[in-house]
Each structure stands twice: as structure tokens, then as C-alpha cells.
Automatic annotation (TrEMBL):
Signal peptide location: 1-25
Protein name: Acetylhydrolase
Source species: Gluconacetobacter aggeris
SGNH hydrolase-type esterase domain span: 64-242
InterPro entries: Ester_Hydrolysis_Enzymes, SGNH_hydro, SGNH_hydro_sf, TAT_signal
Domain of life, source organism: Bacteria
GO molecular function: phosphatidylcholine lysophospholipase activity
Keywords of this entry: Hydrolase, Signal
Keyword Hydrolase set for record: yes
Amino acid sequence: MTRSLRPLLAITALLALAAPAAAPAATANLAVEQVSRMDTPWWHQRFAEKQAAIASGRYDLVWLGDSITQNWERNGPEPWRDFAPVWQHYYGDRHAINLGFKGDSTCHVLWRLAHGELDFRTRPRLFVVMIGANNFGHVHTDAAHTYPGITRIADAIHARFPTTQVLLLEVLPSIRSAWVSANTRQLNSMLAADIRRGRPWLHLQDAGAAVEANGAPDPSRFLDPHLTPPDPPLHPTAAAQQEIARIIEPSVATILGDHRH
């Protein structure tokens, strides 16, 4: 190396040390990604069964969500998990389909919508969407990250069916942790403040009273404490879910243009 180059290289090295570090890449938001669960056998089987039903049937009403929605298919034997008679009363004559999958968060619903759950033979008239509770669980995305995941679900439905109405239910209160409760409240406040802006086809409804007493979640209105071993209160009992159906029934009947059930 020549003597003339050594000072220049030394200066270059000092400048490199003094230069600010490159900003870290922005953390990806899992809540807005499309994530498959096809490697889970029961989920894969359920998805295939629902795809076959979508391909062969006519549906005016679509319930879309997680285990709280999937529970509509459960038949007791205990009264607290005898949901199917309630579904039959409210939705049995309405050409309805249950697209609820236990454990799903917004990212899983987005994958489902992109892989066949919008491939209906005829246009549904109403989607009832209840999603977001699991974002605060194993996926662990906070309210700020979950909100755009929910908007993407609503917008994906609208992009495919521009004249279909969407009834979005706020995330139900639960008794899991202080962090979950705080993010549930924050997310619902964000939804109430903003999500209907520019979306006249979207209706937002709070059905939290179905699982509350005196303004707070009531453990007796959740099925999880009945399990062995018990789980933290998250899933409404059949009676509480019947109350959810009752709360949203005026909106459902108005959108579908039929009588109240």
C-alpha cells in the first residue's frame, strides 16, 4: 500500500464509525398477512368441507370468524354448550353458512378469503364478521396492529361483493389478562371511531352486553369455567350467544329484508 493512500483509508474508517447506524427494518404486521393452517389436520378437513358446501349451495347469510362462531354448530349435551338450536331458530331458514374456525385470527381469515371462502355461486346478502379475539392470544398482536387486519377482511369482502352488506361485531369482552382487556377496549374504540368512514356498506355493532353484568364481563356467561380443567373466560355460553343473536337480530332482519326471528 502506498503512503498516500494510508491517510485516506484511515479517514474513511473513522467516518464509517461515526456514521449513524441504518434504521432497523419495520416489523411486519402479522395481523394483515395471509397465514394458512392447512398443516393442522382438523382445520384442513374443516376447510375442505366448507369449500364443498360453498361450491354446492346457495347462501344469503355468512357468519365468518373464529371458535365463537364455530360454536354455533355444537350440540350440548350440557345446556351451556347447546348452540345448534339457537342457530336453527335465528338462521335455519335464512340460507346461512358457518365459516368459524377455532383458533383463527385475522391473518387466518385473510388466507381463507383469498383461497376460496369468497367463491360463492350466488352473492351473499350479508356477512356477519366476529374476529380479533385470538389476535390478543397466541398471535399476540395489539389493537393498533389488529385494526388494519379487520379492515382488510371487510374490504376483501366488499371488493368481491360490492353490494353485499357487512355486519361487524366488536370484539367481545373476556377475562384473560389486563393486557387483553385494555387492547379489547382500545380496538373497539378504534372501530367505533373510524371503520365506517368511507364504508357505507359496513355496519358496526357492540354485542358485549351479552357477556356482561353491571358493565363488566360476568364469568357465569362464559363456557370456559365449565371445562375440565377450566380455561379463562373467553367463549360465551349458549345462552349468552343466544343473547348476541337477539341483540343483532334487528340489523340482520333489516338487511335481509325479512321478519325478526
